[in-house]
UniProtKB/TrEMBL annotation:
This is Acyl-CoA reductase-like NAD-dependent aldehyde dehydrogenase. Keywords: Oxidoreductase. SUPFAM superfamilies: ALDH-like (SSF53720). It comes from the Bacteria. The active site is at E250. One of its GO terms (molecular function) is oxidoreductase activity, acting on the aldehyde or oxo group of donors, NAD or NADP as acceptor. InterPro entries: Ald_DH/histidinol_DH, Ald_DH_C, Ald_DH_CS_GLU, Ald_DH_N, Aldehyde_DH_dom. Residues 24-480 form the Aldehyde dehydrogenase domain.
């Protein structure tokens, strides 16, 4: 094993103590695979049990701490995470491979999420009350108990804090399992948060084997908040069924963007580019297929290709880079496979963009951004989630046909419509099967994220995160009725 002086050794965090294990797994830099970033404790079922029991012991007193005090502690913790934001963002680049600008945004998003949920919690958690001369009904918003939070690698800070914040403010305790492909920054942030809280309120376990399934099966876990792929989500749901746990699932997406015939390619392409290639396309809410009217297909395709060709692929800490490598070997192989199969099937495949360091290209999971034209609407690259720097462009004849194709997969996370006609856009938006539909943007609004409950329909998931709607997923309504 090749280690270097900066290789981190990361243990489990249970009851606010570092817990070593017998086996460790490697985390390598996706942009420089020869660099061993960390050795991480590989937990097993016994560690899952130890962490859940610690969280359960802590829950029995944390649930009685007044909401206002819980909020104060979370705000103090948010400040501590913010103070380390730069270091956390750099660590993320090394373990996760993304551009520094993106990892900074992820860290800022995590901190903001802690504050955003803290700001709405006190009002939200007040009991509802109905009273007349003879009876009093109070509906309390009680915590559920121990939450298991299972997180992917693609935006770990924001996604983890969107679980930690609502769980803790409402009186639950938590066991977090970060992804083996990006465990470091998020574990450091959770360690900082845990220092402000009683032992066992926040626990962190790691592993690429039995620990995930053991957590999702544990009888003392009352809620699972899972973000990841659809197939893993199904396994989590099956495990949760054994002891009827509450589950929240944020799963894969295949977001369509429908361009209407009154949109101008040169106006919308600069916006679309950002939402296709953000984080090298490794975002659940990235644009993953574009439907364009036959009449403007050529003009749109050329404008898109010109813009994609200006992207510069390089290492995440290289300030010239506008596209980073993908995160891991599976992703790399999956995207290469889609590109090759599209080419074999006769699609027009353009691999574009510049290579900033051709001499070290093969040392990382670097891929050139690809635009796929003349592609069948039911090709794997269109109907499956690519999760990489690749975008198929499909022509359509009528708006109904575009809608049919957009709704024609089992995904239903985000979507967008690009038009100058607001009424037409809004009417079409209501017919899209998705958790979110944006008009003239995608997954971002000028109003910011804090008003948006994120989540999907169909196989893209169950439940919503953020806002009061997301907070509601972490409580039980306990009705106490009194007849006087
Ligand atoms: P993944 O499903 O492979 O892994 C997610 C997490 O689940 C990891 O921590 C992994 O170790 C763990 N895990 C694996 N098997 C498990 C099991 N049987 N039981 C319990 N835990 C298990 O996903 P990934 O590759 O890390 O992330 C990419 C996927 O996540 C994409 O499909 C993407 O769309 C999705 N995602 C969705 C959202 C959303 O908000 N809907 C956000 C981000 C990512």
């Amino acid at each position: 094993m090749q280690t270097n002086p900066t290789t981190v050794r990361l243990e489990l965090l249970i009851d606010n103590k570092a817990v070593p294990t017998n086996h460790y797994f490697e985390v390598r830099d996706p942009g420089k695979r020869s660099s061993l970033v960390a050795m991480v404790a590989n937990g097993n079922a016994a560690h899952a049990d130890q962490a859940v029991r610690a969280a359960h012991r802590a829950y029995l007193s944390w649930r009685d701490i007044p909401v206002a005090r819980r909020i104060e502690l979370i705000l103090d913790a948010a400040q501590a995470v913010e103070a380390e934001a730069s270091a956390l963002a750099e660590t993320l680049v090394r373990e996760q491979g993304m551009l520094l600008a993106d990892t900074r945004r992820d860290v800022a998003n995590g901190v903001e999420t802690l504050r955003e949920i803290a700001a709405i919690a006190e009002d939200f958690l007040k009991p509802e009350q109905h009273e007349d001369g003879e009876s009093l009904i109070q509906i309390h918003k009680a915590p559920r108990g121990v939450v298991a939070a299972i997180v992917p690698w693609n935006a770990p800070m924001g996604l983890t804090m969107a679980k930690v914040a609502p769980a803790l403010v409402s009186g639950n305790t938590i066991v977090v399992k970060p992804s083996p492909f990006a465990p470091l920054a998020v574990s450091r942030a959770l360690e900082l948060i845990a220092r402000f809280l009683p032992d066992g309120v926040v626990n962190v376990v790691h592993g690429d084997g039995e620990i995930g399934p053991a957590l999702t099966r544990h009888p003392l876990v009352r809620k699972i908040s899972f973000t990841g792929g659809i197939e893993t989500g199904k396994a989590v749901m099956a495990a949760a069924a054994e002891s009827v746990k509450n589950i929240g699932l944020e799963l894969g997406g295949n977001d369509p963007a429908i361009v209407l015939d009154d949109a101008a390619p040169e106006e919308i392409v600069p916006h679309l580019i950002k939402r296709i290639f953000v984080r090298s396309g490794q975002v659940c809410y990235a644009v993953k297929r574009i439907y364009v009217p036959q009449s403007m297909y050529g003009a749109f395709f050329d404008t898109l290709c010109e813009a994609v060709d200006r992207l510069q692929v390089g290492y995440g800490l290289d300030p010239r880079a506008t596209l980073a490598p993908v995160n891991n070997h599976n992703q790399f192989r999956h995207i290469r496979g889609l590109v090759d199969s599209a080419r074999r099937d006769g699609a027009q495949v353009l691999e574009l963009g510049g290579r900033l360091a051709p001499e070290t290209w093969d040392e990382g999971y670097y891929l050139r951004p690809a635009v796929i034209g003349k592609v069948a609407p039911d090709a794997p690259v269109v109907v499956g989630e690519q999760f990489g720097p690749i975008i198929p462009v499909v022509p359509y004849g009528s708006e109904d046909e575009a809608l049919r194709m957009a709704n024609g997969t089992e995904h239903g996370l985000g979507s967008s419509i690009w038009t100058r006609d607001v009424d037409r856009g809004q009417a079409l938006a209501r017919r899209i099967e998705a958790g979110l539909t944006f008009i003239n943007s995608h997954a971002r609004t000028r109003l910011g994220d804090r008003h948006i409950p994120f989540g999907g329909v169909k196989q893209s998931g169950i439940g919503r995160v953020r806002t009061r709607i997301g907070l509601a997923e972490y409580i039980e309504h306990h009705t106490v009725s009194l007849d006087k």
